[in-house]
């Protein structure tokens, strides 16, 4: 693979900065069907078991004790820690159900707890859930797995990290968002540099393999200067991975965002300037731009996976474990099992009722056709590696790429003329100017959009 590089092309970014999917899956969740049958899921599980593929487990812990106004996650805001106990019991029921369905000798190469705030659970509850997970599935006990947990650094005492390391977590993801006090007050999210540094120091002392930090640009009262100050503090903390997400203000969908005054939000031009400066700053600091809004140190496994050609993208974003079937547990979580995506109930009452009745909590999903799987592979190759070889797809899928995708290749010609990608003798290569617009390029191969190259509907965030 060629070395990653990114060039900021202001004119092209302004021309193509539209709304579009993030492609953590293809088809995206907007294509899921409400009437998804148990028979389709059972068939997918049978094929999954026959394959013997390793597993990836995701647990959604929806609780937060305070609300962050920008958040669009499926969450339950409560200060009552006793709310965790009945939910924990439901997770244990779901674990038992999946353990009965799957060959549990299959190794769990990846595990991730997200939320919400997973450390809303007490240390005893964390131990309990991990113990039941080990009883039901084959976790790796040699610390070689990729086992991550998301934490709120303003709500986690450093001494609690010992419990997380003890039960098997070896990667820590911190939602920093911004260090500027005015911005923090506007979004009701507080964590100081001192608090984050204490967590980083303790995590490294305990032997966590990797530290990830999440930032957001486009928050109220942010400016290019204030974001630059946050980035300098973050770079000094030296995370192995860093994500810089674009804040999507959609108060019509997320009630908490109505607490944010629109007049305090930076303009689209100011947001672009922030992201431009941030990319330059991170590249100068030695980070590799993995793609979209993700960065990593060159020696991090994410950067190595991209360099060696096995980087993948799934519901957790960029990942090194594309060969795993993903089993997701908890409210609203999405599993990817063989050629099926299934999502659990988003409503906690319905989720709980299903499990209490001994029923599968998955309520909606989609069966991927052969065409879906082909297009998913094309989009994954482009969004992870920024190039694709026609012959590889011809051999793997039994097609003639140029004939099969004649309409899509024609729709890409204006983007080629604008220098976003190049047609090579036997493939496509995204240029350095096109890397930031990779979502727009991928949209051309999305059969679920109205026509190839059409603007996506407003339910999606903007590309930049």
TrEMBL record:
S-adenosyl-L-methionine 2 binds at residues 70-72, 116-117, 177, 189, 214, 248. It comes from Parahaliea maris. Gene3D superfamilies: 1.10.10.920, 3.30.750.200. Belongs to the anaerobic coproporphyrinogen-III oxidase family. One of its GO terms (cellular component) is cytoplasm. This is Coproporphyrinogen-III oxidase. SMART domains: Elp3. PROSITE patterns: RADICAL_SAM. SUPFAM superfamilies: Radical SAM enzymes (SSF102114). Its EC number is 1.3.98.3. Keywords: 4Fe-4S, Cytoplasm, Iron, Iron-sulfur, Metal-binding, Oxidoreductase, Porphyrin biosynthesis, S-adenosyl-L-methionine.
